[in-house]
Amino acid sequence: MGRKAQQDAPNALEMLKVGTWTAEQVASMTDTPLAMVVRWCTARLIHGARHMDGAWRIPGPGLVFFLGTKVEPMYSLRTAAALLDLSDDTIEEWIKSGRLKKVKLGRTRQAPVRILESELRKVVIRAE
């Protein structure tokens, strides 16, 4: 990353911290499907997001904190199901059929399983 790009990146984050954003604005700024941004809000993954007057209001500091995650977000099967508005059983079927890829957090048979956000985005984009 060049020196100019390094200087611009903090300025962009500082700009996001100020004010309140709609779900549509966040979707546009982050190149994320609107449905996914709405699911982030309804699942309370973005701190301070509120549904008012028929639209989501997302505070800048909560958005910056959520977007500032260095590691790709991973979701439990239950949270993935909630984000996609599906049942846990459907998510498990999609994993078995190969429609969704899982990440196993450990080597034992009982190790927790997670779904990467990029996998959820693929499903949302296919549905649109």
* Number of helical regions: 7
Main sheet properties? 3 strands, antiparallel
Largest sheet, spatial ordering of strands: 1-3-2
Class inferred from helices and paired strands:
alpha+beta
Q: What is the number of strand segments? A: 6
Mean pLDDT: 84
Low-confidence stretches: 1-8
What percentage of residues falls in helices of 4 or more residues?
Answer: 40-55%
* SSE pattern: HEHHEEHEHHEEH
Described by the principal axes of the CA atoms, the overall outline is globular
Strand content: 5-15%
Distance between the termini: 34 Å
Spatial extent as radius of gyration: 16 Å
Characterization of the model:
A three-stranded antiparallel beta sheet has the order 1-3-2. It has a three-stranded antiparallel beta sheet with strand order 4-6-5. It contains seven helices and six strands. Helix content is 54%, strand content 15%. The longest helix is centred in the first third of the chain and has 15 residues, at 3-17. It has helices at 3-17, 23-30, 34-42, 60-67, 77-84, 88-97, 117-127, and strands at 20-22, 50-52, 55-59, 74-75, 103-104, 113-116. β2 (50-52) and β3 (55-59) form a beta hairpin. The N and C termini lie far apart (34 Å). By secondary structure, the protein is of the alpha+beta class.
